[in-house]
């Protein structure tokens, strides 16, 4: 069953000169899938993620997320939908500096007034799954990049969202921490059946996914599915990226290992 259905969605930014950022894009994301979205700088990835996040809406076309059309929501309903059904992970972690690891992670449940026992149970499980038990009382400034991103992933998962949206989650991490985070996301996807959509410039990160959707100039360009080994998938991703072109700087974060 599809958790995301986009039918001919377009997004035009109004301004002195109107800009067509997404042009007649259609795609589906299956429940339980781990999808990467790739494309050159300016191809519309952030615009698309903003629409999937329900913080922006298509100018035309229909976008259904978990069976509902967010365009029908009031601002309050949209906020509730995001809080209950979506999780977000960003490149720069976005942790609250005054709170500890465990306080950051449990924050979405605190805000939703969950019972204390339920909060504690979910927190302990996630601290264990994310290998953060030793740093649970630390503050974000005392963490490595990998620990900070794992904390952010914990915060994004604690309310058990159906869809996790990740924007360059490994963009600020070294290769070892990136690998840890990608293996964790892959594990979350397989074990919890959480659907994940990840925007990335990094073909290594994309090779952890089941499918990569490539967009160019706001339009569908190609998509490939992982069929075999991750290393082979990585090679096929590089092949499509070379066809896709774009600015060489777009690949500045690529690590060839
Ligand atoms: N608020 C806005 N107003 C007008 N144009 C915008 C706005 N936001 C983005 N754009 C334009 O829409 C196009 C798509 O931008 P978007 O940020 O979605 O691309 P991207 O693929 O995420 O790029 P990058 O990889 O560099 O982050 C770009 O040409 C950009 O200049």
TrEMBL record:
MF terms (GO), sorted A to Z: ATP binding
Keywords on record: ATP-binding, Nucleotide-binding, Transport
Pfam families to which the protein is assigned, alphabetical: ABC_tran
Record CDD domains: ABC_MJ0796_LolCDE_FtsE (cd03255)
Source domain of life: Bacteria
ABC transporter domain boundaries: 4-242
Protein name, entry field: ABC transporter ATP-binding protein
Organism encoding this protein: Chryseomicrobium palamuruense
Lineage: Bacteria, Bacillati, Bacillota, Bacilli, Bacillales
């Amino acid at each position: 069953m599809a958790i995301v259905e986009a039918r001919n969605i377009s997004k035009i930014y109004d301004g002195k000169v109107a800009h067509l950022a997404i042009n007649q894009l259609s795609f589906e994301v299956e429940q339980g899938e781990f999808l990467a979205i790739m494309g050159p700088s300016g191809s519309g990835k952030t615009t698309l993620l903003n629409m999937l996040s329900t913080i922006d809406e298509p100018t035309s076309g229909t976008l259904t997320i978990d069976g509902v059309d967010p365009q029908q929501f009031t601002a309050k309903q949209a906020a509730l939908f995001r809080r209950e059904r979506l999780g977000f992970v960003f490149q720069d972690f976005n942790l609250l500096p005054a709170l500890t690891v465990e306080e950051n992670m449990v924050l979405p449940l605190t805000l939703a007034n969950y019972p204390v026992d339920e909060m504690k149970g979910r927190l302990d499980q996630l601290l264990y799954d994310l290998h953060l038990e030793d740093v649970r009382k630390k503050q974000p400034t005392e963490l490595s990049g990998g620990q900070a991103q794992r904390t952010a992933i914990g915060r994004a998962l604690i309310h058990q969202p159906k869809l996790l949206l990740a924007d360059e989650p490994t963009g600020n991490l070294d290769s070892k921490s990136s690998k840890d985070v990608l293996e964790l996301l892959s594990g979350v996807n397989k074990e919890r059946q959480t659907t994940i959509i990840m925007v990335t410039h990094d073909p290594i990160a994309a090779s952890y996914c089941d499918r990569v959707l490539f967009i160019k100039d706001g339009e569908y360009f190609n998509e490939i599915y992982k069929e075999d080994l991750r290393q082979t998938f990585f090679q096929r991703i590089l092949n499509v990226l070379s066809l896709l072109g774009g600015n060489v700087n777009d690949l500045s974060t690529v690590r060839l290992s």
